[in-house]
């Protein structure tokens, strides 16, 4: 079993892996998220432009490899040990936010 200290360290590591999302407020705008069509990782356009997709080594371009059409969001802290991650086939990905369905299957 994980100690409280280990769990806290893991949470801190996880928080740095999640895309920074602005909440409603200020000008009433939202940061738009896009999903990688292969692994379903959710990030902003700027994050994909900067780091591409950390799960997909053959990620070529933002336009060809992402979609704004997705449904459901799941956050994975420890994908290898996550029941939800295993059910969704996301056990070998980085910690982060993932779409449950992407593309035409989400419509």
UniProtKB/TrEMBL annotation:
GO terms for cellular component: DSIF complex. The keyword Nucleus applies. Coiled coil: none annotated. InterPro entries: RPABC4/Spt4, Spt4, Spt4/RpoE2_Znf, Spt4_sf. Signal peptide: none annotated. GO terms for biological process: regulation of DNA-templated transcription; transcription elongation-coupled chromatin remodeling. Residues 33-103 form the Spt4/RpoE2 zinc finger domain. It comes from the Eukaryota. GO terms for molecular function: RNA polymerase II complex binding; zinc ion binding. It is found in: Nucleus. Keywords: Nucleus, Transcription. This is Spt4/RpoE2 zinc finger. The lineage of its organism: Eukaryota, Metamonada, Carpediemonas-like organisms, Carpediemonas.
């Amino acid at each position: 079993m994980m100690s409280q200290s280990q769990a806290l360290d893991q949470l801190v590591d996880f928080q740095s892996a999640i895309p920074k999302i602005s909440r409603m407020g200020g000008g009433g705008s939202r940061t738009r998220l896009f999903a990688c069509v292969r692994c379903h990782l959710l990030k902003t356009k700027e994050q994909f432009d900067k780091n591409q997709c950390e799960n997909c080594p053959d990620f070529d371009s933002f336009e060809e490899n992402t979609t704004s059409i997705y449904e459901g969001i799941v956050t994975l802290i420890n994908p290898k040990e996550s029941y939800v991650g295993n059910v969704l086939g996301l056990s070998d990905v980085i910690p982060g936010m993932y779409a449950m369905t992407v593309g035409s299957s989400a419509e």
